[in-house]
Amino acid sequence: MNSLVPATSPDETAAVSAALNSLPHDNSALAALWKIYGAEPVRLVRTQEGRKLSLARYHRAEEFMGSLAPDAPGDWPDFLYSTGIVVQLALSSHLLDVGFPDSWCARHISLNVDRSLAYANVTAFGYDCAETARLIQVLAPYWKWNRRHLTEGRYPDDGGFIGDQVRMLVGGLVDHVCHVTGHARSRRRAMPS
Fold first, then answer.
1. Is the CB of residue 40 less than 8 Å from the CB of residue 104?
2. Residue 158 in contact with residue 76, Cβ under 8 Å?
């Protein structure tokens, strides 16, 4: 795994650069993903800007969780499309927090939530839930669930998931992002319903 380091002041940045240069170059899991996905390698450097953007993405994921409520408008494809949005927002919160540039994520991950989870897990996310991984495979890339891409009433394979199961899995993932990043829950989500 690439080194994850905060960079908050010029002195700290210099110290971090010196430390990074002295580390062994063992980022084989991350390098393997770059090769698998044909992505441009990037050095992960944690910044205050990345941290703020990470928090904003986390809160957007929480906001979009409302679109997964049992009484939310829409049909099954709408629900799965919204699920993809929540998952991508949550995982990108982690990726931004550990130092991936937002522009890199947009270019090399895009709407492929399976890639987001893979990059997250090789950068200390540590989320090992087989059912969540299976759901993410069903969603990826989540644009395929957007109504504009569905033709002749044919839907992609939904893996046999049901709404309550998806809500539980996505809720667990979002909670894990909160735990790993240390972001505070938004007031709306923190209040009991």
1. yes
2. yes
Does residue 10 have a pLDDT over 80?
Answer: no
Whether the CA torsion 182, 187, 191, 193 is positive or negative: it is negative
pTM passes above 0.85: no
Q: How far is CA 4 from the centre of its chain?
A: 17
Q: Does the N-terminal peptide bond of residue 141 adopt cis geometry, omega within 30 degrees of 0?
A: yes
Q: How far, in Å, CA of 142 to CA of 119, rounded? A: 17
Cα(147)–Cα(151) distance, integer angstroms: 8
Write the single-letter amino acid at 167. R
Mean residue pLDDT of the chain comes to 83
Kindly indicate the confidence band of residue 149, based on its pLDDT and cuts at 50, 70 and 90. Answer: low
Residues 6+ apart with CB under 8 A from 27: 1, 2, 3
- Facing residues of 151 across strands? 154
In the block, residue with structure tokens 């899995």: 169
Distance CA 178, CA 182 (A): 6
